[in-house]
């Protein structure tokens, strides 16, 4: 319905002010959801870690992390397979459609892992709310007038969610071992969480207006929708097809095999959260609604949801698949011949990069630019992906979110005995 509204308004040649007014409710809706993300993450993680008492229930944390890593690796392998079989890249695309792109020029696998460690332990917790650590390479002139690349550690704008998550996990875990003394602090964060839930209840009433505004505004502002989709249709089919295959088949089979129940009632119940993720293209923005759906509608164990969902920022199944397809696509339009070593390098780099991706719209595009240096792909060709990322990003985000939601169900099922013991105690 939202898509049809945008397509209907496109031929009217609306003025920029009119388009701004159409998009404005969606912008306010998105800003409100983003405003609630940080308090949600902090309060949920501290409550979850303290109540779960990880010192006695370490298996829950281990199962969560292992599942995250395995699904990320699977999606990278799925993306590489689809990219090699479908071969979406064509050299004809880059002749007239590329533009220059300014951004990080180089990244290697080691830098990616080292940056993850630096972001995991931020120097300043307050700085982590607005900046992340990033390794870049700058061109400098040496004494003999030759150009060389110099590695520089910088800070880029964006919440260092990984560092905040790690700090909150440690804080909550230690708090859980403090006995009776933990109650005042735990009560504070519990009340904070409940306040955010009440605010969310009011925001949810504006979801239909916000979703419609975001999608309509995006479609109306596209310069040439038809040409863009035709030129990159095979890339869209490859990525979106991979997202749907994982979302509708693979993860449903995993749920059925482990939980031993039909996955479809669970999947359908996630509708409001998935719709918000699709409209906003941000898993973080949809986090408050995801909590509400899992806790109130699906009656999942709050100890699991408060632990799994906030650390879901490292579980980017959709981004893992997208990055691998995008790099193969860019290599193919440049006629680069890839061997086993290059493909393995791409897979390793995409797995590491996806687990450090920010949960914000089009964050994966920045990672694509950085990963181009892994197999020496010209970064200017990334501009092709910008043309369709407004669409692909929405499917990618729903995959990222659904991975977290199914992790909650699977980890809760596997941790049934530990949870029963805690409840009994």
TrEMBL record:
InterPro entries: DAACS, Na-dicarboxylate_symporter, Na:dicarbo_symporter_sf. It is a multi-pass membrane protein. GO terms for cellular component: plasma membrane. The chain crosses the membrane at residues 33-52, 64-86, 160-179, 199-220, 232-258, 307-331, 343-371. It is found in: Membrane. GO terms for molecular function: glutamate:sodium symporter activity; L-glutamate transmembrane transporter activity; neutral L-amino acid transmembrane transporter activity. The keyword Transmembrane applies. It comes from the Eukaryota. Keywords: Membrane, Symport, Transmembrane, Transmembrane helix, Transport. It holds the Pfam family SDF. Belongs to the dicarboxylate/amino acid:cation symporter (DAACS) (TC 2.A.23) family. This is Amino acid transporter. It comes from Aphis craccivora. The lineage of its organism: Eukaryota, Metazoa, Ecdysozoa, Arthropoda, Hexapoda.
